[in-house]
Amino acid sequence: MGWGNTITRRLKVFSMALLIYFDYKAVQKRVQWVSTTKKSATWTKTHERNARRVLNLMIELEGLWVKMGQYLSTRADVLPEPYINVLKQLQDSLPPRPLDEVRGTIEKELGKPMSDVFADFVLDPLATASIAQVHRATLADGREVVVKIQHDGIKEIILEDLKNAKSLIEWIAWAEPQYNFNPMIDEWCKEAPKELDFNHEAENTRTVSRNLSRKTDCGSGSISSAVDVLIPEVIQSTDKVLILEYMDGIRLNDNDSLEAYGVDKQKLVEEITRAYAHQIYIDGFFNGDPHPGNFLVSKEPPHKPILLDFGLTKRISKSMTQALAKMFLSCAEGDHVALLSAFAEMGLKLRVDMPQQAMDIATIFFRQSTTASEAKNIKALNDQRERNVKALQEKMKLNKKEVQKFNPVDAFPGDAIIFMRVLNLLRGLSASLNVKIVYLDIMRPFAESTLLGSLTHGQIPNSQWIYDSPANSDVESKLRNYLLELRSDKILGIQVCAYKDGKVIIDTAAGMLGKYDPRPVQPDSLFPVFSVTKGITAGMVHWLVNKGKLKYEETVANIWPNFGTNTKELIKVHHLLNHTSGLHNALGDVVKSDPMLVCDWEETLNQIAKCTPETEPGSAQIYHYLSFGWLCGGVIEHASGKKFQEVLEEAIVRPLHIEGELYIGIPPGVESRLAALTVDTEELQKLSGIRAGADVPPELLNNVAQMASGVPVLFNTLNVRRAIIPAANGHCSARALARYYAALATGGSIPPPHSADSKPPLGSHVHTPKFPTAPLKKKKGTGKKKCVSSTGNLQDASNSDKNGYSQLRTSDADDEAAARSGSRIFSSDKILDAFMGVGEYESMVHPNGKFGLGFRRYSNSSGTLRFFGHSGMGGSTGFCDVENNFAMAVTVNKMSLGSVTRGVVRLVLEELGLPVPDEFSTSGEKGPDMVLNLAPPEQQS
Predict the structure, then answer these.
(1) What residue stretch is flagged as signal peptide (predicted)?
(2) Which of 326, 330, 737 is nearest to 526 (CA)?
(3) Which contacts of 785-792 are long-range, i.e. CB under 8 A and separated by 24 or more positions?
(4) Among candidate residues 490, 482, 495, 542, the one with its CA nearest the CA of residue 522
(5) Catalytically annotated residues
(6) Residue 326 to residues 290, 342, 513, 887, Cα–Cα distance (Å)
(7) 391 SS3 class
(8) Checking DSSP bridges between strand 877-881 and strand 886-892, what pairing results, if any?
(9) Each residue of 313-366: pLDDT tens digit?
């Protein structure tokens, strides 16, 4: 192709682009002043006019532009209907090339006259496409074949078109920054030239055919004996000629023939989707160009899809295949943690901390397809884009111009570009055939097989399933053997840590971070521990009492004035800690109707202050399953004059040197260490036989099965994990939790540094890591700026550190330094009595109640109170034995009735010769679930 043709093609492309751009801009201005009806008609005419312009230019230029038009013609879910109707013509044959050109290419490539190769060669082509045209023929040996012949000089045209397309995309991104398609065109520039080598296509065809015909075993059984599609056999190939087996089929755009032959279009597209799911997730080798022209349907029942044209075929690594599978499954489960982990493994980097938008972006690729007849998707997608832009603007405090220039994606992997292009083409295919496809249902088995097939428990060596760290004691070695025995059925991920006489004797991590997150659990992994959080919150209240900021017998309204309404004037601090305030169901109905209310800290405090108690303060001990956290949290903030998380850091985290491993509401930046929740479905079935005791709100236990199945979905979202829910939203490692209880067991003495064998060292993480977001410009004319904390609250940045957490006041910083250089976090010599509600504090707790002041009291077989702690729904627990200076914590991410934790605790204590708390020693499968253990044993069959 000479310079003249090159310049001419370039001029035609850019002059047409400018013409269309200015046409749309002009209409955009004009329709502001017309009625809605006229506006719709005007836009329809504009789309039709410009679609015809695009079509005519693509037919004239051929080459890459035809292929791009074919791609766009399948996007009925995105493009306006006039474009689809017009560009569909590109799915039919283009004007054929002269026979002399075809003959010359064949004879040059095969090195012999056509008559020596073919007994018959049909002169009229079956189809003429952008790169080649296809003729039907009969070989000398009688076999029916099709011959694909590359257009003469097309290679130079395609390479020039790629340059022009790249320049055009860059110009669009400059003119309209929100439409930046550079990553897609960059990947296309890399992959498209491969289509010009037919030897490459022949080998790809053979490989895909072998892959789709083999049996797929994923360890737990075969998900598919073979995908039910047809692929032509390769007979012969050269650089520019490809001879394939002839298969008689119907084109997908021939709707009359599809109807006449009785083809089930729904089943057809589902089988094509299965074929691509197999290629992507099982083989890691897939056709990147599934437009309608690359499919036929066999005329013989059961009308199988025929897959054609494997020139643009992508091979991806096993790690990328697994990351794509993890992305898919995390979308299916709504698991933000696994999604962000998948993004990181794919090489996709985000500049802005907006987890819900990240989920929206990923989920849109796997959503149920919409038929062309229902497609109002342009408006829907535009509306969604506008909402995302608005959220970004609010999050980043950007002006309109800055929003247009800001790209939330820092890096986008090329492999993912082709993957998403395939999904978009499949979506367009279903839209063009007017059928609905539920991609999640079809693709899930294939994604699960690649992610979990090689990760079944039986295939992971013991040395990899237990985190590689030296055992601290003989009992830890025995514990690890016990965990290995249990792991195939009862454990997904687990951490166990124990202190004896201030020294670490157990620090074990095992299993995986999530069902769809096969990374290993490590000592610093963060587990959601639910009601275990109440024991941490209670410790903060005791710390403030110890500092003289409030008193146990003080009325809450004296500390928190807005609280003193609706007969709550007599409720005292010790009523909150002892679950006797009468507010056990406060906000229960509200949260049930609006679960995301828990993410709004200020609103929950406002609403809890307006609630009315159901029983007289002190008259009955009924478990405050959610309200406990907001009640104590409001007292903590009003008594201290600080934010809840500031008090947590000052009172517990920094003195114990457990930075980065104990949170109530996680900050951005710790996502890579989060364990994802799942449910032990077998144990969940046992809940049907459990009845509520007097100290359990019936509303709670009646819904516990529904809660247990729904909690993982809710708590695997980062929105909820980042909320402050001081009754249920603790995220910690077992070693941080055990260290906390080791300090409480001695009345507040800070234990010696944690074991040096535990890697990374406890306390080595930055407590509030900064999310890698683009820096904001400082606003002019003010010395202050607003920033958003990890919980979404606006704070005055003059009193905040760079990560959005407020600085401690000078006097408090001094107190913290003193506490850290000293040996105690409590100075009272009666603090242990307060924890358990004995001695002079006995009058503050309900007679024979299961709680002291904020902690669950445990007794031994003789009935003596000597243990306290707190367990959580699903099985995580933390507790201590005061008499024997022993503390222990267990964290799990496979939620059950607590039988695993119960067995672990019993083994450890019995090996050490220590008494077992009654909650862990009772026979049966009850275990340390906080809700279940508040009902009498005879009601827990």
Answers:
(1) 1-28
(2) 737
(3) 786/397, 788/395, 789/643, 789/645, 790/645, 790/665, 790/666, 790/667, 790/668, 790/722, 791/601, 791/645, 791/665, 791/722, 791/723, 791/724, 792/599, 792/722
(4) 495
(5) 289
(6) 23, 6, 12, 37
(7) helix
(8) antiparallel
(9) 888 888 888 888 888 888 777 777 777 778 778 777 665 555 555 555 555 555
